Amino acid sequence: MNQNNPIQERIEQLLVKWTIATQVPNTRIIRILGDTDEQDMLDAFFEYMLAIDTDQEDFVLVLDTPLLNLENFSRLLLDEVVEEIEQWNTADIPENIPFENITWQPDYNQDSSKNVAQLFLNNIVTLAQYLISDDDIKCCVVIRMPQASKPYATKWLEDALKLELPSNIILGIQDIKSAPIFSTIADANPKQIITIYPEFNMDDAMEELAGLGDPTAVETPYRTHLVKLMNAVKKREKQNVSIHSKSCIDIASRQLEKDPNWLIQLVTIYTILYNDQIGYKEFKKAIYFASKAIENALLSSTLINPDMAYRLLGQTYLGRGSLYAVKKNWSEALEDYIEASKAYHTCHDSLMECESLRLTGWAYEKLGNSKQAIQSYIQAYQLIHKIPPETIKGSTFPLVVQKILHDKDRRKQISDVQMDQELTQIFGSNWEFIIDQYGKANKKQPPIYAQ
C-alpha cells in the first residue's frame, strides 16, 4: 500500500500500539476496544498482521471460532488451528518467502476438566516451541469469540490467566465500546490485560482518502467535499453542510455540459440534504430539497442510461411522497407514489413498483377512496411472479395480501384458489397465519418508504 494512504497509516499506528503492549512486563492479554463502525478496519488490521510480506516479526494466529459452549471451545479452537496449518502447507507461497511445511499436530488427550482453557493453551505452547526458536519473538493468538456471552467469555479468560505460560505467549481479544463483554475481567486484572484503542477516526480517514488521486481531476475535490458533507450531516454541523453542499452542487453543475451523468450526483446531494432536514423536523425545507432531487432526476431521464434514470426518478418520487405523508398531505403523496410506480415499471424494478403501488393504495385509503385503494393493492399483488420468492419474504408484500385477502372485488380478478397456490409456494401451507401476524407489532401505520 501507499504509505500516504490514510487507511494504511491508521492500521500501522494500531500495530505500533499492539507491539508496545506485547513488550509490557506481565502482559498476558491485549484487548482491542473499538467503536461499532471500526469493525471493518479491525478486520483489515488482522489481515495485515497475518500478511507474510510485512515487517511484522511476531507469529500471529487469528481465530474466529464461535464461543457457544465452554466444554468444547478449546477443542474447536485447536481444530481451527489445524485448518490454518493445512492452508499454509498447501498455499502458493512466493519464492522469495522462506517456506517449510508445518508438521506439528495437537495433543487432544490432555485432562482439562478443571480448566476450560488448558487444552488449547498447552497446545499453543508446544506450537510456539515448534515454530519459534527466539524467545523474543511473540506468539500472538487473537481469539475473536463471535457470539460469545459475557459469562462464557469471562470464565474462559479467567481460566487462561490461571495457567503458567511462557512470557512470549500473548492472547488478543476484540471488544466493542457500546456493548463490552470483557470490561469486568479487564478491570479486575489491569496488570495482565492491557486495553488499547484503535482511534481510527474513520470520518477523518474517509476525508483524507477522498482527497487522494490526481489533484487536477475534477472528481478529486468533488469526492472530498461529498465526504465532508456526509460527515457534517452526521455531526449536525449546519454551516459545514451548507459550505460543502454548495461546493458539490457547483462542481457537479459545471460538469453537466460535458457529462450528463453528473445529474446522478446532483440527485445524491439533494437527497442527502433533504434527509438532513428530516433530522431537524424541517419538513418544508426537506420537501424543497426533495423537489430539487426530482427536478434533476427528470432531466436525467432523456440524458443517461434509462434504467438508472428511471430508478433515480422512482427513488426521488417515493422520497418526497414519504415527506408529504408525514405532513398528511395525502393528495400530494398520492401523486408522487403514482409517479414512482410508473418510473419503476419503466425500469423493470418490480419490487419497488410493488412497494410504490402499496403506498398508492394506502394514500387512496387516507383520502377515503377505498375502491381505488383495492385496485392499487391488486396491481401490487399481481407482480408476485416478477419478484423472487426470497425477496418477497423480506418485503412488505404481506401487507398487500392483508389488504385484499377478504375483499370481494379481489375475487373477481384473483381467485381464492389462485391466491392459495401462489402464497403456499412462497410462505408454505400456513401462509395465512404468517400473513396475519406480519406487522402486528406496528399496526397503527404501515411502513413509509424512506431513503
Structure characteristics:
451 residues; alpha/beta; 2 domains; Rossmann fold; five-stranded parallel sheet; single chain; 5 strands; 20 helices; Serine Threonine Protein Phosphatase 5, Tetratricopeptide repeat
Q: How many β-strand stretches?
A: 5
- Structural class of the secondary elements? alpha/beta
CATH topology group of the largest domain: Rossmann fold
The mean pLDDT is 87
The amount of beta strand, in percent, is 5-15%
- Contiguous runs where pLDDT drops below 50 for at least 5 residues: 442-451
What is the spatial order of strands in the main beta sheet? Answer: 2-3-4-1-5
Q: Estimate nothing, just give the exact number of structural domains.
A: 2
Explain how this protein is built.
60% of the residues lie in helices and 6% in strands. It has 20 helices and 5 strands. Mean pLDDT is 87; it is low at 442-451. The chain has 451 residues and is an alpha/beta fold. It has a 5-stranded parallel beta sheet, sandwiched between helices. The relative contact order is 0.07. The radius of gyration is 29 Å and the shape is globular. Helix 11 (283-300) runs antiparallel to helix 12 and helix 14 (350-366) runs antiparallel to helix 15. It has 2 domains: 6-200, Rossmann fold, CATH 3.40.50; 256-442, Tetratricopeptide repeat domain (Serine Threonine Protein Phosphatase 5, Tetratricopeptide repeat).
